[in-house]
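Run log // design_07
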């Protein structure tokens, strides 16, 4: 592959249910199926990424919680092998308590950065799924990241959400020790090309962030919603669906930018 430096990408948007986990999952599967070595990190107390990969987060003895809370913890002790090219640091419900503890005890927020940077030569990509809302877990992820992908549901408040995240990125760059954090792109999700409002939101996103909106919006596609109920991601469940095709184009865009 000729890749030597890991791209640490965080998928974030404080708005809930915009397709963060779906994007992380499908992107990771596609990149790993192409032979890239991918590490997934689930930082969401809901642990939906972990569940999507078939693990019961309530029965795990170690999760990303340990990585945030215990300085002596290493990646290799926590991560689970999913396939020869895919590994997961699972999430767990404890993360909600970790978030409070980190604030109360003024915990160093750059620990995750240090740990993920240790993976520099083991993985081609690290993809981090973050919870909705904006708390220390997402901040720790953004401090650790090279870049951030922002899924934005094509609805009336998409612009507001993206603007708020832009402010957060600016703050992380200027005052939180990650001056090189890049906006990798805004990813329009739940796009319905028939809907006038959705096309308008897409235009507004392009106007707000010229050149920083991925060309291939992820369409609203019932196959994407059905796939988790069949224990799969859409790229495996319905590879010819519009949703799967859109995620393949996204993976190509991300992969080709790195080569
Ligand atoms: N393009 C799509 N078309 C149809 N349904 C989708 C699409 N993308 C995601 N979904 C469904 O919408 C729901 C929310 O998606 P997802 O869990 O990825 O969002 P999220 O941003 O991670 O949510 P949260 O903020 O709660 O973590 C899920 O049930 C998912 O299967
Ligand atoms: Mg999610």
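design_07 sequence
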């Amino acid at each position: 592959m000729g890749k030597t430096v890991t791209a640490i990408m965080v998928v974030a948007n404080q708005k809930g249910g915009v397709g963060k986990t779906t994007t992380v999952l499908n992107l990771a599967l596609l990149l790993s199926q192409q032979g890239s070595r991918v590490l997934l990190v689930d930082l969401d107390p809901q642990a939906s990424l972990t569940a999507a990969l078939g693990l019961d987060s309530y029965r795990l003895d170690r999760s990303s919680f340990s990585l945030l809370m215990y300085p002596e913890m290493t990646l290799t002790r926590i991560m689970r092998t999913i396939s020869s090219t895919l590994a997961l640091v699972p999430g767990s419900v404890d993360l909600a308590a970790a978030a409070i503890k980190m604030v109360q005890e003024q915990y160093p927020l750059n620990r995750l950065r240090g740990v993920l940077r240790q993976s520099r030569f083991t993985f081609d990509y690290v993809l981090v799924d973050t919870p909705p809302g904006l708390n220390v877990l997402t901040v720790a992820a953004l401090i650790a990241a090279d870049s951030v992908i922002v899924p934005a549901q094509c609805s009336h408040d998409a612009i507001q959400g993206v603007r708020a995240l832009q402010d957060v990125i600016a703050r992380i760059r200027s005052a939180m020790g990650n001056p090189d954090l890049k906006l990798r792109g805004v990813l329009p999700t739940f796009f319905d090309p028939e809907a006038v409002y959705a096309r308008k939101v897409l235009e507004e996103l392009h106007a707000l962030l010229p050149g920083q909106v991925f060309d291939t919006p992820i369409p609203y596609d019932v196959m994407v919603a059905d796939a988790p109920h069949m224990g799969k991601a859409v790229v495996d469940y319905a590879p010819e669906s519009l949703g799967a095709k859109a995620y393949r184009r996204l993976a190509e865009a991300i992969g080709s930018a790195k080569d």
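Strands lie at 7-11, 38-42, 80-83, 86-89, 125-129, 147-153, 182-189.
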